[in-house]
Amino acid sequence: MWIRGLLLLFIFTTILLAGCSNTARDVRSAAEVEIVNVSYDPTRELYQEINKAFADHYKEKTGKKVTVTQSHGGSGAQARAVIDGLKADVVTLGLAGDIEAVAKKGLIQPDWEKRLPDHSSPYTSTIVFVVRAGNPKQIKDWDDLVRTDVKIITPNPKTSGGARWNFLAAWGYVAVHKKAPEADAKQFVAKIYRNTVKLDTGARGATQSFVKNKLGDVFISWENEAILAQKEVPDQKLEIVYPSISILAEPPVALVDKTVDARDTRVVAEAYLNFLYSDEAQDIIGRNTYRPRNPTYQQKYAAQLPPIKTFTIREVAGDWTQAQQKFFGDGGVFDQIYRVK
Amino acid sequence: MRNQDTGHSPRGNAVRKDPWFVRWSLIAFTMGFISVMIIGPLLNVFVQGLEQGLTVVGQAVSHPHALHALQLTVIATVCAVVLNVTFGVAAAWAIARFRFAGKAFLTALIDLPFSVSPVIAGLIFVLLFGAYGFIGPLELGSVAQRSANAASFGLIGLALYWLVSKIGLLAWFRRPWIVGAGLILAFVGFGLLRPVSEVQRIDIVFALPGIVLATTFVTFPFVARELIPVMEAIGPEEEEASRTLGASAWQMFWHVTLPNIKWGLLYGVLLCNARAIGEFGAVSVVSGKLAGRTDTLPIHVEKLYQGFSAVQTASAFAISALLCGLALLTLVFKSFLEWKNRQQLLATTSKGAP
Amino acid sequence: MPGHKRTALPGFRWSLGYTLTYLCVLVLIPLAACFAKASGLTWEQFWDVVTDPIAVAAYKLSFVTSLIAALLNAVFGLMVAWALVLYEFPGKKLLDALIDLPLALPTAVAGITFANLYGSEGWYGQYLSFLEPDGFVGHWFSANGWFGENLFTVDTRARGGPLSIVIVLMFVGIPFVIRSVQPVLAEIEAEQEEAAANLGASRWQTFRYVILPAILPAWLTGFALAYARGLGEYGSVIFVADGIPGETLIPPVLIVSKLDQFDQQRSAFKYEEAAAIAVVLLTISFLTLVAINLLERWTKRFEPTEV
User: Fold this and answer.
1) Which of A6, C99, C34 is nearest to B88 (CA)?
2) Which H/E stretch holds residue A127?
3) Mind listing the pLDDT tens digit for each residue in B131-183?
4) For chain B, which terminal residue's Cβ has fewer other Cβ atoms within 10 angstroms, N or C?
5) B108 pLDDT more than 70
6) Which pLDDT score, from 0 to 100, does residue B173 have?
7) CA B245, CA B237: separation in Å to the nearest integer?
8) Shortest CA distance from C257: residue in chain A
9) Helix-strand-coil percent breakdown of chain B, rounded to 5?
């Protein structure tokens, strides 16, 4: 009778469940390894290419097959997921503050930033503007963003790493570049967010709002995301506007010590992170519109990634911990901006 | 929500005195409303999915991530449905066939997951089973912590036992203290619950079990809610008769009860199934969204939709069209089951029209 | 055993025991975890989080949009149910079956298709530019228009604003009113209507005094169900709404964003705050549920008795 079938199905399902649940400790042959790279939103295409190259590279070097599984989301959201148990072997997030959050929970060693060159960021990016074909609103620099007739797209700094870079870039323009007092910077940034018409949770969502749903006149964006958008939708003829000065965004990478030790993947994960600094990876990085650290490749892609004046986060707010606290924490500057309604 | 007799006008012979303009405007409104609100979006999904051509559709549907998402969705759905059927049958049996104090309260509790936002449904399992959750893995060497957990949970169990005894539910049990002991032990067990060692730890959040739990929670009431009215309507006479004729409990259940509730049960399964496949919010919070590992179909659709190339958008809609197709199939089955159920009710209850 | 009713039917202990255990394990304990987590805050902190202007705006948005959507569904649903039950017209069976689509359709799919439909270039959105802030309706309701200046501003955009939330909530709530009312409408005795007509009642009077009271409980139940459904909706809303804190941010999105925010002082993500907001939502949902149950019970008392 069909009830027996149901019972059998139940038993079968339970067994299946038990079998499927231990994804972290799959019995694999010695020749196969899997690592998980938890990354932030815009790096999907970048890591697709890097992972393929790394797999080939690693197979050549050691004969082992390695699969890199990716997860993408808002930088802060990803950090939370890792803390909550998402088994990441490496994290390649949007800002040091988010990796620091994971480190504070004991999952990463406290000196993680020093373990790799260049503050553990093998690539950099910056913040630029994307505008519609022909730049109808004539947006040239930061000051144009606060005009009343300009509609802005930028993600929510509470959840998106890129959004925090955006915020600090705008703040830095006034506080660092113009050397104006903080109150002016706050007013400036407040005006920018008042002009914002949609606050997505992640950088990719914001790109989609601007490109697909055609919201807003200007999109404050990662440079890599901007160039990618331009390439992917050529019929829209989007233009990239480089402001007079912007922030040097240094998205860092790190090994998650707790996970790699538990899964015994430290060797592979270290090889993966070191690979990011190799010539091959730096080339891929440049090709995918991120700014490589390696000067040879910086030159190679200089046409796509023109030189731009930048300031660093250290000039804006010391370090990420201080920046988080001051700007993005409860009652911080961003909250104050939205509270005034 | 039992959709019963809507297929034909029951008052075929009665004088329909609605003025013609009322009649025609209501009909026009109905057609317009359903077209705009339901048919429009449905068509839109298919059209957007086909916008980049059939090859894109084929690629989207056969992509390994999509296939894995489908597999995960199916597994989670089947588990949720099976679990909730066992619950639904048990609950309907207890509620429809017996009288006991607190029945109304129990029914209300069963309805509770309906009103809980899916995000909260995901959140609660993260709070329980996340790395820093109440039941999640504890740090080594915290025996004191574990004991404290066990004690506090034991107290909760004690409180629940007291509550249950106050309501009077315990009076129905022959040995209420067994119930109490069992309850408290279960809670103490929860407090002590922890993985045996790192190697054998089962990931709940950000893995399949978490997704199953969240889906089961969200679809929890569906089967029960369908079965209870059906069983109440059918009445216990046949089952009681079979018992007096000497049937054992299982015989009664399998040969009398189940055939009677067959269609209602399948209806509940269908609703549960449809909801489980489509669940997004709860799984969003609990799954970690690892592409090719913990993505369900709706989450995969979300990811595709977030890509800004036209191909990715079309792929998102293509897979959505698949889900729409499933939904339409659900509707077809639903109509069939309703018809069957109506037939059965008319035949077995005294409410059948002469 | 005091009060133990010996019935001919077996399985009471087992079925009730299993029911209670399942309920505890799957529903009560996880929900309790929410309250337990929120209790990690002091009362003052809890109050701060829960009455934060953005949170309050989120609750208001959820209530108001769910209410409006449910009201619209109540009115339209009654009209549709009326036509479906009482009239014959081509395609009726098909339309009737389609009513249940919102129940069977994944919310994310509903979300992306509505975002697409009502966007500025969508099938519907392209005709709705008058709702934009620079269109004539949108302008009237904005801060510069007559209504907005003298009364209150309303964001009337078909996509991205609160109106879009109402539209999508209306979609998910369509089946509730219609399916609640249909069976009752179908069962109203023809004799009662004929009697009323014979006694000289006009069609309107028959409707008002005979039919309406009969369907009122079911109508209210359907309305309440649609409302409760709208309160928690997440998957479809996040695709259509802009998510601007204080304007188009719904409570579930607020919860998720709190989960992703890192508190420097406590060196942890803000689970307690997320749980606090969840507690508020749960309490409200539970109260709504209780209200629905009471409503059902109350209106059943006024059901017309069988003649």
Assistant:
1) A6
2) strand A123-131
3) 777 877 433 334 555 666 677 777 777 788 777 777 776 666 677 777 777 77
4) C
5) yes
6) 67
7) 12
8) A159
9) 75, 0, 25
Asked if A155 is an interface residue toward chain B (Cβ–Cβ < 8 A), one would say no
pLDDT of residue C99: 93
Residues 6+ apart with CB under 8 A from C53: A339, A341, C246
**Residue-level pLDDT at C264:** 63
**Which whole-number Å values give the CA distances from A212 to A224, A228, A230, B115, C251, in the listed order?**
17, 14, 12, 34, 26
Residue B15 has pLDDT above 60, yes or no: no
Q: Are C103 and B38 in contact (CB under 8 A)?
A: no
Q: How many CB pairs under 8 A join A and B?
A: 97
Give the span between the Cα atoms of B203 and C238, in whole angstroms. Answer: 28
Measured in angstroms, the CA of B199 and the nearest CA of chain C are apart by 26
* Burial class, A28, CB count within 10 angstroms (exposed 0-12 / middle 13-18 / buried 19+): exposed
Look at residues B211, B326, B327, B226 and name the one whose alpha carbon lies nearest to residue B269.
B226
Question: Under 8 Å CB-to-CB from A236, ≥6 apart: which residues?
Answer: A132, A133, A211
Find out whether B15 and C190 touch, Cβ atoms under 8 Å: no
- Nearest CA among A280, A279, A288 for reference residue A251: A288
Collect all residues of chain B within an 8 Å Cβ-Cβ radius of residue A72. Answer: 289, 291, 303
Contact A210, A166 (CB under 8 A): no
Distance CA B175, CA B153 (A): 23
Determine which of B206, B223, B286 to mutate to test the interface with A (most A C-beta atoms within 10 Å).
B206
If you average pLDDT over residues C300-304, what whole number do you get?
61
Residue B166 is encoded by which pair of tokens? 């106050």
Tell me, what's the pLDDT at A294? 92
Crossing angle of helices C271-300/C43-50, nearest 10°?
A: 70
- Residue C229: CB partners within 8 Å, gap ≥ 6? B114, C169, C172, C173, C176
**What ipTM describes this predicted complex?**
0.85
Largest CA distance in chain A: 81
pLDDT at B77: 93
Inter-residue contact C112 to B301 (CB < 8 Å): yes
Residue of C nearest to B98 (CA): C12
3-state class percentages of chain C: helix first, strand second, coil last, to nearest 5: 70, 0, 25
Task: Give the model's pLDDT for residue A276.
Answer: 95
Find, in chain C, the residue whose alpha carbon is nearest to that of B283: C235
| Structure-token pair, residue A303 | 């046409």
Task: For residue C241, list its beta bridge partners.
Answer: C160
Element containing residue A267 per DSSP (H, E): helix A266-275
According to DSSP, the β-strands at A32-40 and A65-73 are parallel
Is the dihedral angle over the CA atoms A310, A74, A232, A283 positive or is it negative? positive
Cβ separation B79–A17 shorter than 8 A: yes
Q: Is A230 on the interface with B (CB under 8 A)?
A: no
Q: Which residue of A has its CA nearest to B211?
A: A21
Higher pLDDT, B333 or C191: B333
CB-based contact, B15 to chain A, within 8 Å: no
Burial class of residue C300, CB neighbours in 10 A (0-12, 13-18, 19+): exposed
Residues 129-158 of C with CB under 8 A from B: none
Residue A318 C-alpha, separation from nearest chain B C-alpha, in angstroms? 30
Q: Say what the pLDDT of residue A290 is.
A: 93
What is the number of residues in chain A?
341
In chain A the first and final C-alpha atoms are separated, in Å, by 65
Task: Tell which residue, B73, B116, B69, has the closest CA to residue B212.
Answer: B73
Q: Which residues of B touch A81 (CB under 8 A)?
A: 206, 288
B118 touches C: beta carbon within 8 Å:
yes
